[in-house]
Amino acid sequence: MTAFLILGCIGLALLVVSLVVGEVLDGMLDVLGSDAFSSAVIGGFVAAFGFGAAAADAAGMPLLGSLPVGVACGVVVGWFAAWLTRLVRGGGSDGTPSTGDSVGYSGQVITEIPAEGFGIVRVTVGGHVLQLNARADTAIGAGTEVHVTRVLSPTAVAVAPVWDSLP
Questions:
Q1: Do 75 and 126 share a structural domain?
Q2: Which domain covers residue 140, as residue numbers?
Q3: Could you tell me which residues are beta bridge partners of residue 135?
Q4: C-alpha–C-alpha distance, residues 17 and 47, integer Å
Q5: Of 57, 90, 123, which residue sits at a domain end?
Q6: Where would I find the H helices in 99-167?
Q7: Which InterPro entries did the record assign (predicted)?
Q8: 122 and 83 part of one domain
Q9: Mutual orientation of helices 39-58 and 63-90 as an angle, nearest 10°?
Q10: Last residue of a domain, one of 36, 64, 90
Q11: Span of 29-43, 92-106, 127-141 with lowest mean pLDDT
Q12: Which H/E stretch holds residue 73?
């Protein structure tokens, strides 16, 4: 049972190391060409194998019964770790928002918008701050809260003061 507990602790240590410097370890395992052999999968398998076999041994199973229990535990945890690894790596992040994504959002005028010209507004879309050229039907002073109503070009939007866009 002691050997199984040592294996479980080694697996846990490998899991901790993979969390801290996992990219370095996984880079060495890229030769195998699959997420099934990432450091998290191997650490999870070894830890679950060791602790599962130790639990079976503590329950009174003979060695030939404890080993399959340990392997089964390791396979289940290893599969789960591989699934999570694929999920995290394949779950790409949202792209950078474009001007079109700002329509309907509120922002603040940074540079005064003259009646017949462009000013600059700052709009936050999904945590990204966009600074866009802006045009309005009337002059709007700096610091005024505005609502983006439509896109004029890839770098410019039409805005209206918030009080104008309320029903």
A1: no
A2: 99-165
A3: 158
A4: 13
A5: 90
A6: 162-165
A7: NA-bd_OB-fold
A8: no
A9: 150
A10: 90
A11: 29-43
A12: helix 63-90
Q: Packing angle between helix 39-58 and helix 2-29, nearest 10 degrees? A: 170
Amino acid making up residue 3: A
Backbone φ/ψ region at 62: left (φ over 0), alpha (ψ -120 to 50), beta:
beta
Contacts of 141 (CB under 8 A, 6+ apart): 109, 112
Average of per-residue pLDDT values in the chain: 85
Q: Does the pLDDT at position 16 exceed 80?
A: yes
Written as one letter, the residue type at 72 is A
Q: Which residue has the tokens 């191997």?
A: 42
Question: Is 38 a residue whose pLDDT tops 80?
Answer: no
Centre a 10 Å sphere on the Cβ of residue 113 and count the other Cβ atoms it contains: 26
* Strand partners for 86: none
Which pLDDT does position 77 carry in this prediction?
92
